[in-house]
Amino acid sequence: MEKRKVVGKVTPEERDEVQKIFERLNALKELFPTVDPNQNAALYEHVLADMAQTQKKFEEWWTTRWEEYLWEFSQDGNWEIDFKTCEIYLN
């Protein structure tokens, strides 16, 4: 198994911000399959829009931090955060 490479670190405040977004996105992804658009179209559309908005916030968080910290990146890689240590890994 390949070891993850540490490419940076964020502040605890930044970590808390992305963790909140990450948890909301995961909750919405779990909720989405349970909403039947034929029974509650308004709720379905609301969850769908919230998922898109939250995904955008998540991507913007990563882009903003990358621009600030200039982390190493790879075309086919992705960053991951360790919520305990605030370290950023490149996978």
- Protein structure class: alpha+beta
Cα-based radius of gyration, to the nearest Å = 16 Å
Whole-Å distance between the termini?
12 Å
The shape is elongated
Q: What proportion strand?
A: 5-15%
Give me the number of helical elements: 2
* Low confidence ranges: none
For the sheet with most strands, the description reads: 3 strands, antiparallel
| Mean pLDDT level | 95
- What is the strand tally? 3
Strand order of the largest sheet: 1-3-2
Order of helices and strands: EHHEE
Helicity range: 40-55%
How would you portray this structure in words?
With 91 residues, the protein is α+β, with helices and mostly antiparallel strands. It has a domain at 12-73. The chain has helices at 12-31, 41-69, and strands spanning 5-9, 79-81, 87-90. A three-stranded antiparallel sheet has the order 1-3-2, with no helix packed on it. Strand 2 and strand 3 (87-90) form a beta hairpin. The protein is elongated.
Topology:
Layout: E1 5-9, H1 12-31, H2 41-69, E2 79-81, E3 87-90
Antiparallel strand pairs: 1-3, 2-3
Helix pairs in contact: 1-2
Keywords:
91 residues; single chain; three-stranded antiparallel beta sheet; elongated; alpha+beta; 2 helices
Could you give a short description of this structure?
The protein has 91 residues and is of the alpha+beta class. Helix content is 54%, strand content 13%.
